[in-house]
Amino acid sequence: MTSPRAALTLASPEATCSLATRLADRLRPGDVLLLSGGIGAGKTHFARCLIQALQDAPEDVPSPTFTLVQVYETRAGELWHADLYRLSDPDQCAELGLTDAFETAICLIEWPDRLEDLAPQGALSLGFAMDEGEDVRQLALDWTDPRWDEVLAGLTA
């Protein structure tokens, strides 16, 4: 396993939300964020903050654990928030329309390991991990697409 391109310590839920909010304004349709980490690691909190930052009138953002996918209209375009925890086969991801959404919408994917080889090569991977402090999270960011160098400039310093 290679080292992440960037690593951050998020000292509080507010710090996680701040990062999500700052990143939100830099996203565009076709951007895919793969959010991994254990239960309670902060994936949904990050996604909720990012989605609300793109809404003109922030609304409640439920976890899509049972609906699998929530779609939002935002000022940056359509945004898909998917929680793939309950999926057992990557073909189910295609049935949900995710592979098409990867090209036309901003996509936030929790439990991206369920995608297997359907995960877009140009996606930004965010790995959340709990730290010793109750509210502290470690975040590892990794990417191959040079677009993310520009998007993340100044956010990961």
Indicate the topology.
Blueprint: E1 6-10, H1 13-24, E2 32-36, H2 43-53, E3 69-74, E4 77-83, H3 91-95, H4 98-104, E5 106-110, E6 124-130, E7 137-142, H5 147-152
Parallel strand pairs: 2-5, 2-6, 4-5
Antiparallel strand pairs: 1-7, 3-4, 6-7
Helix pairs in contact: 1-2
Family: Belongs to the TsaE family.
GO cellular component, one term: cytoplasm
GO molecular function, one term: metal ion binding
Q: What do you see in this structure?
A:
The protein has 157 residues and is α/β, with parallel strands linked by helices. The chain has a single domain, classed as 3-Layer(aba) Sandwich (Rossmann fold). Helices cover 26% and strands 26% of the residues. It contains five helices and seven strands; from the N terminus they run βαβαββααβββα. A hairpin with a 6-residue loop joins strand 6 (124-130) and strand 7. The radius of gyration is 14 Å and the shape is globular. The mean pLDDT is 89.
**Would you identify the CATH H-level superfamily?**
P-loop containing nucleotide triphosphate hydrolases
Overall number of structural domains: 1
Identify the CATH architecture. 3-Layer(aba) Sandwich
Task: Note the gap between the termini.
Answer: 23 Å
Largest sheet: 7 strands, mixed
Radius of gyration: 14 Å
The helix-and-strand class reads alpha/beta
Can you tell me the CATH topology? Answer: Rossmann fold
Mean pLDDT over the full residue set? 89
Helical percentage: 25-40%
CATH class label: Alpha Beta
Residue windows where pLDDT falls under 50 for at least 5 positions: none
- The ordered string of helix (H) and strand (E) elements is EHEHEEHHEEEH
The general outline is globular
Record field, number of beta strands: 7
Number of helices: 5
Major β-sheet strand ordering: 1-7-6-2-5-4-3
Beta-strand share of residues: 25-35%
Pfam families: TsaE
Protein name: tRNA threonylcarbamoyladenosine biosynthesis protein TsaE
Subcellular location: Cytoplasm
GO molecular function: ATP binding; metal ion binding
